[in-house]
Structure formats: structure tokens, C-alpha cells
Amino acid sequence: MLYFAYGSNLNHFQMKRRCKDSIFLKKINLKNFKLTFRSKYRAADIEPKKNSIVPGGLFEISKSDEKKLDVYEDYPKLYKKYYFYFYGKRVMTYTMVKKTPFKFPTERYLNVVKQGYKDCNLDKKNLQNALKLM
User: Fold this and answer.
1) CA distance 63 to 42
2) What is the torsion angle, in degrees rounded to the nearest 10, for the CA atoms of residue 40, residue 46, residue 47 and residue 48?
3) Directed axis angle between helix 107-119 and helix 125-132, to 10°?
4) Would you say domain 2-126 falls under CATH 1.10.10.10?
5) Burial of 62 (0-12, 13-18, 19+ CB in 10 A)
6) 17 pLDDT exceeds 70?
């Protein structure tokens, strides 16, 4: 199945540790969403926003990878699944259930995300904007 990563799972080392079968395919943009950080975990989340994009990584994952991600993402309590179509193919990602106010991520978490942006060759502008918004 196809999985869209936009936070710490962009980090190739971390993603491989979590999902041994995962294969990074390419970078893509999720349209009409924006990146933010929230919850007591200060983790990445996405929310609808017209004319905005969230850059991320498109991965091929196995069924067992998906089960591992479900556990890691605390599905369905913290994150729920969101599906969208990219060139006719169904893609799964996670979005937080409770849309709590913005919380600046921890330095450790942010460094994992920044490395993920490098690994997937994403434009860091979107990440910087998400951190400056509040």
C-alpha cells in the first residue's frame, strides 16, 4: 500500500527501523493542507487549508508495516487514518483526532524531522513556516 509521511517518518533511518519493508518512492505534495505541531507529544499533524501544501514522502509499505505504524501512531486514539488519491492511486496518511492548539516540537523530534526533509529532498521552507505560524 502507499503511505504519505510528513513528520518524523520522513527520516529514512527511523522509517526503516519502524517499517522494515518500507520503500521510499518519491517526494510529493499534499494539496490544500498545512503542516502544524500539536498535542502533549508536540508531534506533526496536518489540517485542511485552502491553497496550501504539505511536502512529504511517498512510501510503499506492507500490511505488517501498517500494523506497526498503527501502534506507533497510537491509532485510533491519537491519530486516525486519512486517505487521498495521488494520480489515481489510494494513499494513506495519519491525522490527529483532537485538533489541540499549536505546540512547538521538542528539539530532538524536530531534528529527526529535519533529517527526514534532507533524506526526501524536501524544501525546508514549509517546515520553517509551520514553526513560525504561531
Assistant:
1) 27
2) 180
3) 150
4) no
5) middle
6) yes
The amino acid at 68: K
pLDDT digits (tens, 9 = 90+) for 81-134: 999 999 999 999 999 999 999 999 999 999 999 999 999 999 999 999 999 854
Q: Are strands 79-86 and 89-96 parallel, antiparallel or unpaired?
A: antiparallel
Asked if the peptide bond before residue 76 counts as cis, ω within 30 degrees of 0, the response is: yes
Closest to 72 in 3D by CA, of 17, 30, 21: 17
Residues facing residue 105 across a β-bridge: none
**Residue owning grid cell 510503499:** 60
* Domain extents in the chain: 2-126
> How far is the C-alpha of 22 from the C-alpha of 43, rounded, in Å?
21
User: Is 80 exceeded by the pLDDT of residue 38?
Assistant: yes
How many residues would you count in the chain?
A: 134
Cβ–Cβ < 8 Å for 38, 96 = yes
In 10 A of CB 58, how many CB atoms?
20
Q: Please give the Cα distance from 84 to 93 (Å, whole number).
A: 8
